[in-house]
Amino acid sequence: MTEFSYPYGSSKINTEDEFSRMMMWAAPDGVCASWGSPALRPTANGSGTVTVPPGEAFVRGQKYLNDADKLLTVPPNNTGATRLDYVVLRNDPANDRITAEYKPGGTSLPPLVQSWTDVWEIPIGAGKVKAGAAGVQPEDMVDARWFTGWPVAPSLPGYRPTPWRDRLICENGVILAGTGTGWKVYDPFADTGWVNLAPNGSNAEAWAPSGVSRIRTRDKRVELRLSVKRWATNGLGVADDDGSCVFNLAAQYRPPLEVLGFGYGKVARQSPLAVNVETGGDVRVRPLVNDLPASRTVQAVLSWFLD
Fold this sequence. Notes:
By secondary structure, the protein is mainly β. Helices cover 4% and strands 40% of the residues.
């Protein structure tokens, strides 16, 4: 047989494998939820068990349902190194069942088995068992779930479906993404254009524009161009450990981790300055070598990604 198509009146589904091969593309492997849900997300408490809460999933095109907490035993780690383990959903066609199982590894996570002639596994949790320990600490059990999902579906503005986080719908050519509580326009290549900035940080009274300070987001990348001047009666010294907060950026520009950049102050020999952009939006200037005299201009360019 070189070609086979089904189901038809003359070629019905005859085996589990035929059904699974068809359904696994209509219902991809994964938990029937979004990542904000606790469904089937394992938790640990430092004892010799982990807990898999209720939830539903598809594994190799077949349905799994768990309607109560399930406890899984954690084998003790009798080695001298931290052990990396999986919690999996295991489809075992030979025994007609899908079960949640604890799968010990070694110094790396164990390989997942995915075989049409054997079992088929997908991960839902990944844990660490420290050397000599008999359990997983809460912080050492992390979410490793795969998620099944919907295709991008047409929608009417007044009758939208439940906004599961990261679910996508389309209305008249516009893609919207679910946030968990509502819908927002999805545009990964949004360009804000250049937006001029005026000093508005906690030390704004000590600064004035000198040229143009501006900021722009494009393709999830932010560029900040800073050009400001200290007031004539207010200098900035290297002994000022916290520096001076010139701007506080709007939430859409704030970096996920603190950003460090460098600029210069227009003093003798162009004195170097550090510029920090904090996750809360504060932009701070710190002299590195020389005090910044009053009335001198500071210039810098910084760039960072939003994820």
